[in-house]
Amino acid sequence: MTEQSTHTTTVRTALVTGATRGIGRAIVQDLARDHIVFVGGRSADDVQRVRDELAGLGPGTRAFTADVSSDEEVAEAWEPLRDEFEGLNVLVHSAGIAPQARVEEATREQWERIFDVNVISVAQLTRLTLPQLRVAGGDVVAINSGSGFTSGPSAALYSGTKFALRALTDALREEERENGVRVSSVHPGRVATDMQEELQAYMGNEYHPEDWIRPEQIAAAVRTAVDATRDSQVEVISVRPSGMVNRG
Fold it and tell me: What are phi and psi of 143, to 5 degrees?
């Protein structure tokens, strides 16, 4: 077991969900420089691929293979990590889905599925890991969205969950102040990921990744929150495409 005292760890640890692609993958690579990172993903092969890619960088990685919407899989993946490490320094919720549908088209199954993945699973994993986060005086970082502030046509499903996620993190922040756990909400605009490519296809647009934020910039925002000194708490970060990059 890693030697630790309250709010101090010999080796810092971080659990990142949705870690095998896009924003989550960029966050893992950044945190892996100085954290043991628990690489979260549904596919064991994808999790192992990321771990192989990061081999030799920083203090190492562990697998956290689970569908975040399955309490049983999450508990099974967490148990060996909980037993190995007394505290958890960073929990990043990056897993999420973003189906598009007009309200007249959206089914009950779509509503239930997206709230399960994007909101309920965040609450459940946070609840599971809070004892270890409190030991370490850790940080919870939720990757929200600009859609957590505004909505529009075909966005009710996704924006609904992101509004709810903002409410969850706002409440958690106030609840955990006395326990020394900081809570940050990162709200990216459109990011150059495969999810963005799918969205542009849905909208009938050509996808030009240079038009959108690089995932590494969202990882940098997470790093800002995590590295803030203990006299401060980065509560909300909003990152938007600048529109200043010309296609060449």
Answer: -85, 100
Tell me the pTM. 0.89
Token match 């046509």: residue? 153
Task: Say yes or no to pLDDT of 190 above 90.
Answer: no
Question: What are the domain boundaries of the chain?
Answer: 10-239
Q: Which architecture does CATH list for 10-239?
A: 3-Layer(aba) Sandwich (3.40)
Contacts of 1 (CB under 8 A, 6+ apart): 83, 84, 85, 86
Report residue 12 CA to chain centroid gap: 17
The rounded distance, in Å, linking the Cα atoms of 15 and 18 is 10
Give me the DSSP letters along 118-165: IIIHHHHHHHHHHHHHHHHT-EEEEE--GGGT---TT-HHHHHHHHHH
Which position among 38, 64, 158, 212 bears the catalytic label? 158
Q: DSSP character for 73?
A: H
Establish whether 158 is a catalytic residue: yes
Q: In the chain, what percentage of residues exceed pLDDT 70?
A: 85
Whether residue 37 contacts residue 64, with contact meaning beta carbons closer than 8 Å, is answered with no
Q: Are strands 4-5 and 8-9 parallel, antiparallel or unpaired?
A: antiparallel
Q: State how far the Cα of 145 lies from the Cα of 153, in Å rounded to an integer.
A: 16
Residue identified by tokens 């270890």 is 132
Sorted by sequence, the CB contacts under 8 Å of residue 26 that are 6+ apart come out as 214, 215, 216, 218, 219
